[in-house]
User: Fold these one by one.
Assistant:
Number 1:
Amino acid sequence: MRNNKKLLKKSIFVIGLVFVALNLRPAITSVGPLIQDIRNDLGISNGVAGLLTTVPLLAFAILSLFAPRIGRKFGNEAAIILGLFLLGIGIVVRPFESVTLLFLGTILIGVGIAIVNVLLPGIIKGKFPAKIGLMTGVYTLSMGLAASLGSGLSIPISQQMQLGWENALRFWVFLVMLAIVAWLPQLKKDTSVAKKVRSLPTKSSLWKSKLAWQVTLFMGIQSFLFYCMISWLPEILASRGMDLATAGWLVGFMQFIGLPATFIAPVLADRLSDQKKIVKAIGFLSVIGIGLLLLDVQSILLVGLSVVMMGTAFGASISLALTFISLRTRNAEQAANLSGMAQSVGYLLAACGPFMIGFLYDWYASWSFSLIVLVGLSIVMMIAGVGAGQAKYVDDENKSLMP
């Protein structure tokens, strides 16, 4: 009987985890396809419109540092509800025909997602310490699938269903409401566990830990590479003679093809004594995939191979980065702190990436130098990842980190 209750409790948690994860990207990825309609209706410039995808990343970078404190104050499970609530308000407020409300809603969306982003690895660490890889794979796969749906459903909802861009953006609030309902049972968790987690010392020197910085750099550079390619791959392919419609489809395909790797990488990582081989495979795929774009050829086979390799590398790298947060820490509290550090730096780099790569293109009037920089960063990511893949904890270097 007790085993049945435990199984039911775990099943309810997994269902809640999946619904929460499904909300972490659509509010952002649904904007891109609608950006032209938003710009025309509100009379904003391309630069201002571009901030709609940059502002959430900046919110991630800033709020990620404070999310662990929010988790300690309210409890991680309750803080997830708070994050979802802010996300829902942002989704509802953003589509009003006001530039002020547009950005207020966008900021709230970034704040809400940032809280959830940071706290989930710690919750998984506390709930499933023996199945970190599997649970991380479940929620990153859900997150990636929802990101693709966010991009793919925006135009059909707006145009085919004739609901307009406003309702296409508001549509995702229903998914937030489902997630809140699905997560509510977690507020009835064992209070002794909650007190034990919140009673752990909160001060640490993670910022002085070499291993913590290796995890952070791996997280940051993979985010940088992903968002640069999401932003500029259509233009890069168009400069090689491909039509923009096909190039845009390939960007969606790149995200979709990476979904299996998103699930497999953390599951495999959890079964290995260290993750160096996985990191090297990711680095190889990223270097070759991006490097193929340096060949000024119009072969659809080579372009397709490049997209498959990049999609696999990016899909595996984000889930592995999140898995590192749990594998390199001893408990949920430490995992939340490392998650805040890694995601803060990571999303700051991600927010700067598209701008920097675009600036290099404007400066050199060629994508070649930008692509060489991205290949170089792939190598740096691999070096940092090999360090992050060592079978040890962040406090092994400095015992002052240990709770």
Number 2:
Amino acid sequence: MSQSQLKADNKKLILGIDPGSLHTGYGLIESSGKTVKMVTCGAVSPKATWELPQRLAYIHRSMVDLIVTFKPQAMALEDIFTYKNPRGAIKLAQARAASILAASLSDIPVFEYTPTLVKNAVTGNGRADKTQVAFMVSNILSLDQSHAADVTDALAVALCHAGQEALPLAKAKLASHNRGSSWRRLSPKDLEALGYKIDPNS
């Protein structure tokens, strides 16, 4: 289906991301506001023997490839949460940044949601464990095979964003305190200020 057809049918492609420096799960869903279906999913897994900069570059390039291929209208991730291991938290933040940068440079808005809101949106229980989340994601999207936790978590945050967008305006305002922020898209002036050369014909 072409992008023009998607817009005509009021459908939207949402790319959910579950970032990690060794495994970054992704899940792309198509949402019409009333129905959702999975388009593709998987994980970007750089070699564990690579240095961190190489892994981050690989994640970034892979996200760019996904965006160029499928042209999603939004990217959704879980907000940063308390992490017991400081070094792990730093690596997670860097992996998130690699994905966010790919979206921002492609003029795709990025949304963040708390883990509690994601779990509640998918299972109805903000304290659900990963097994419950995976089970409900599989049911909602009628998946015919099991997937790794990082993939189902990515699909879960995509479903959360689809659900938030489908909320009536009044309910959406009431839920706004639980909704993560939307990152401002980078304008051509922003990109030029960062040293990127912008093609005026693009």
Number 3:
Amino acid sequence: MSHDRDIDPFWVWGEDANSPRILHSMFRVRDVDASLRFYCDGLGMRLLDRYDFEQGRFSILFLSYAGYRDGPAALELTYNWDQDVDYSHGSGYGHIAIGVPDVPAMWSRLADFGGRQGTAPKAMMEGAPQLAFVHDPDGYAIELIQINRQPSALSQ
């Protein structure tokens, strides 16, 4: 399913890089459809690839705003087929930060895509961009950070 059709699927991250970079973050999800609705339909990411491993009884899905090589790091969602568990987020996981043009609008919008609203939009200091927190369908914290100084122009 890769959008980078001319690239060897085993080398989607690159085959001639000379410096390190972050490739992806992975976490486990309980419901693939709910996760895709939140991240793709709600946040606007796209599914780059899905791999289903029958022998291992799991699936991995790579999502990003761009391709493997052309943009920010991807998310790897892992779904274990035969486990009906509540994954623990532990005390070490913090959040994933995603820049959006209009934090209040996105914070409100994600409730329609399975998100649970956390911290309401606010600026931590005068003149700073707004930020807010929302939780995905599995309860993972997502920080939304304003990346446009005039979001009202985008919302109209």
Number 4:
Amino acid sequence: MVQIRIGFIGDSITHGTGDETLLGWPYRVGQAEVARGHDITVYNLGIRADTSELVAERWEAECEARLRSGVPGATIFAIGINDSAHEKSATKDGQRVELDRSLDIIGDMLTSARTFGPVLWVGPTPVIEDMMPLARLPGVVYDFRNDVISDYNQAYITKAAELATPYLDLFTPLGADPAWEAALRKSDGLHPNSDGYVLMTEHIGAWAGWRALFDG
């Protein structure tokens, strides 16, 4: 049995937005490990619409409060898709976080997070472009495009390799999966419904980076 506390750090897709069961994928992967006999504590630290810049302002204090108690810990970063979005608002008309800056910020966080134990990085997911843009906040429009997300994903793969950090490319397999598209269309085109989070759970739960936390 592995005893571990894990901080899942990210955005709305980490949070589980769109999931009518309110479980998202962090609680589902946690449930699967409990069923295998492990003692896992899940801390969902996802905040809707957060970019890497916004996560950088808060993640360390949140992990300090949860992962420094003598129990083995780990951090899972699942950020980047909001960095790729084009924002149209009263104060901005452009990428929310340019790619080079996104890489620098996330790289710094991944390096610093090693103090809490193993560090993993889950990449961004595809969207339904004909359901974009999204206007959830007054006066703010976010437009997500798969070609831009793909560019960020490929750069993240390279960055993760440089940092020797396990990275899960979800964009490639989910982009070719009609079940993922169906799950997005049942929601808002960015966030899946529960079916999509189940798909994410299957990929993450089978990922060598994740399995190393429990089977190593």
